[in-house]
Predict the 3D structure of the following.
Amino acid sequence: MLKNFKFNVVETLYYVTPISAAWVLLFASVIEFRHFDSSTWNLLLTHKGSFLFSSVMAVSTNAINAVVIQHSNALMLKLVATARNGVLVLFNAMVMGEVVTGIQFCGYSVSLMGFLFYNVLIRRNKQQESSPGK
């Protein structure tokens, strides 16, 4: 959808960020806020720098997503996110010693193989399109 409008990154953030914030606030108020007590609010105030940094990282993530969508497509963004999650889980299992079941390992391995296969196909198509005489 965003690619069809030809917005630049700032324009995209202008429209996406308030809506994203509203949905997060809505779900947090329904799901999380009822569990808050005075110590939770004090923790928020004590570590406001960390929470502010987290907010800046969330807006940065939206900006990066907008750039990726503009320069490729939403499918590629989803594939990159899937691959990132798979790599993170496999890293935690192999390096950090996190327990991963055989089914989970197979699932993440299949998602990574799908990402690699997609990239190989895209690269092959680009090479065929750019090769002379075709």
In short: Residues 13 and 60 are 10 Å apart (CA to CA). The longest helix spans residues 102-130. The chain has a mean pLDDT of 82. The radius of gyration is 20 Å.
